[in-house]
Amino acid sequence: MAIALSTLVEEADRYLTAARIQDYCPNGLQVEGRPQVRRIVSGVTASQALLDAAVEADADVVLVHHGYFWKNENPCVVGIKQRRLKTLLNHDISLLAYHLPLDVHPEVGNNVQLARVLDLIVEGPLEPDNPRSVGLVGALAEPLAPRDFARRVHEALGREPLLIDGEGPIRRIAWCTGAAQGYIDQAVAAGVDAYLTGEVSEPTVHAARENGISFIAAGHHATERYGVQALGDYLARRFAIEHLFVDCPNPV
Hints:
Layout: E1 3-4, H1 5-16, E2 28-31, E3 36-37, E4 39-45, H2 48-56, E5 61-66, H3 79-90, E6 94-97, H4 100-104, H5 110-118, E7 120-125, E8 136-144, H6 146-157, E9 162-164, E10 170-176, H7 184-189, E11 194-197, H8 202-211, E12 214-217, H9 220-223, H10 226-239, E13 242-245
Parallel strand pairs: 4-5, 4-13, 5-6, 10-11, 11-12
Antiparallel strand pairs: 1-3, 2-6, 7-8, 8-10, 9-12
Helix pairs in contact: 2-3, 5-10
Binding site for a divalent metal cation: 65-66, 103, 220, 224
GO cellular component, one term: cytoplasm
GO molecular function, one term: metal ion binding
């Protein structure tokens, strides 16, 4: 079965309320391909490896979290940008990308999907007074020592995380997928025992140690694999089309 590209894009935009969210890149259809869609290939980032996999799979649409045309990037179509766009255009494949709308969505969002994978109980937003809050606060069903929780993360995500051990047991936890280490101050203010995100920077280590909380950097790519899969599955069910997730390994 095939559906119109315009119908797929309209539904994805509506479902994620993409127009309401101010972002660092355009959300939605970034590159237009053939007008009919039978197969979606999804991935975290629209890298050349993912595009090549989409060509091999005879995809009509590539659906990603990290697309193109970021603010302040060089707008010239040269180098890897030229090669990536050439691949899409030569094979008549559309690129559909959602950044912050896919982080914050309450059903298929990266943060709520990571909670499902790690068996975390969602209590509410990391910043209750911020309508654009992307992080979440919640709890573990049973307290765990930081090293035991890090082991759970390793087993669930298939990547050994960096752990700054706060020593005390983890009962309440805050998390925000991707490059959100800067939210550690909000996590401290929320009174949690641990903060989990994708990346780490040098000041984050000191902030965790001096505030007495555990910090887990589980990988930007590893923590953001699940939202795009859930969105692709939703669209596939909604329109009776095919969806294939392709995981292009990334150690960061």
